[in-house]
Amino acid sequence: MNETPAQLLAQSLFDDESRQQIDADDWDDQDLLTKDEARERLQRAADLLNVQLASAGSDAETEDLRAQLDRINGVLRTLGG
Predict the structure, then answer these.
(1) For residues 1 and 15, what is the distance between their CA atoms, to the nearest angstrom?
(2) What DSSP designation does 80 have?
(3) Neighbouring C-beta atoms of residue 53, cutoff 10 Å
(4) Which of 11, 19, 42, 53 is buried deepest, with most CB atoms within 10 A?
(5) Would you state the pLDDT for residue 79?
(6) Which residue, among 38, 32, 25, 68, has the nearest Cα to 50 in the 3D structure?
(7) 10 Å Cβ neighbour count for 60?
(8) Can you say whether residue 80 is alpha, beta or left, with left for phi > 0 and alpha for psi between -120 and 50 degrees?
(9) Cα(74)–Cα(80) distance, rounded to whole angstroms?
(10) What local confidence, expressed as pLDDT, does residue 28 receive?
């Protein structure tokens, strides 16, 4: 029986043996955040980075902190923060 690529893909997506099984209790350990919670945590992280940036000693340290802060601010913009 020759199956099309689409049929093979559908089989692989819905094949119970090919999917990773996750124990139910693993979901209890997940930290699922709302956008507001994520925004608050990221804002706290940005505030801490700003404090560290103010006391950064070397150019390399300053550059690393600015890069981290830029990434966090980018995510905050996408979250509307």
Answers:
(1) 18
(2) T
(3) 15
(4) 42
(5) 87
(6) 68
(7) 9
(8) left
(9) 10
(10) 53
